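thoughts on my protein:
***
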Amino acid sequence: MKIGSIDLGYRPVTLAPMEDVTDRSFRILCREAGAAMVTTEFVSSDGLVRDVDKTIAKMHTLEEEAPVAVQIYGNIPEAMVKAAVMASHAKELAGGHGADVVDINFGCPVSKIAGRGAGSGMMREPDKMVAITKAIVEAVDCPVTVKTRLGWDEGSKIIVELAERLQDCGISALTIHGRTRCQMYKGEADWTLIGEVKNNPRMCIPIIGNGDINSPAKALEAFERYGVDGIMVGRASFGHPWIFTEIRHFLDTGEELPPMSVSDRVALAKRHFELSLKYKGPVTGIYEMRRHLSCYFKGLRDFKSTRIRLVTSMDPEEILSTLDYVAERWGGEAPEAASVYEFIS
């Protein structure tokens, strides 16, 4: 599968953008685990236009992440176009590797974004969505992709027609989450319409499916039953970046890997923690690692008091020594794979 000239290989598995999750350290781990492409956290077009330092910093990427997409969101056409141009020049503005792809967020359902007409809020204004997309494609030199949903609600699932219109704007790929905005993340993702988009004879760009891919078996079903070109994994990677290794191995060999041992999880968590400290400093790095550390060891018995220590300490050495204790106390265990996904239900 190709996005422009970027070859992601056969049946690629990519990392979804997630605010406060897919920062630089997590993206590196997911790429190392086998994610074919990663995407930044949401970058506000308004923040970029106002030259907000924190927003610009979100566009900083590294060579080891490539290929990487910078995702922008907003609902003001002029600001979105300017932000897309800035994102396409992320290397000059934010340093590092820059952006291989500019991705447009028309899918985020959270109220603070969709409620003001951005993200999946744009599903209520498809004409405006198409106009913004067309203007962005015309304004930048790198490939442009779109991530969106089935529609605003059950009565307005417009994705089949909308996909054609977005393709006609010149985008290089389309990612579809199999829920409406009103569903948020509740219920099961509906892949039937994703499959309908993919099997529409008018569609010629890659279609990437997203929603409830939380196991190698579901990944294979997405490819074989619905025919998508690629899949995107979101919440199931949270605290479980090695899911990309598991899925890639299963797709390539038909065999499932054994669950990762606690000792190996500790080693990965320590590497993640050290990267977080390196890129964000001791205070922010610790605060933002807490959500990950609480999930790395999901499913371990009698773990509550140790988890509390991991997510309340502000001392890096204490956190590392607690992780060493986890390896010593539970090192021989490998929680059942199903328990890893409890946090996304």
Notes: Confidence is low (pLDDT under 50) at residues 337-345. Residues 262-296 form the longest helix (35 residues). The two ends are 30 Å apart (CA to CA). The chain has 15 helices and eleven strands.
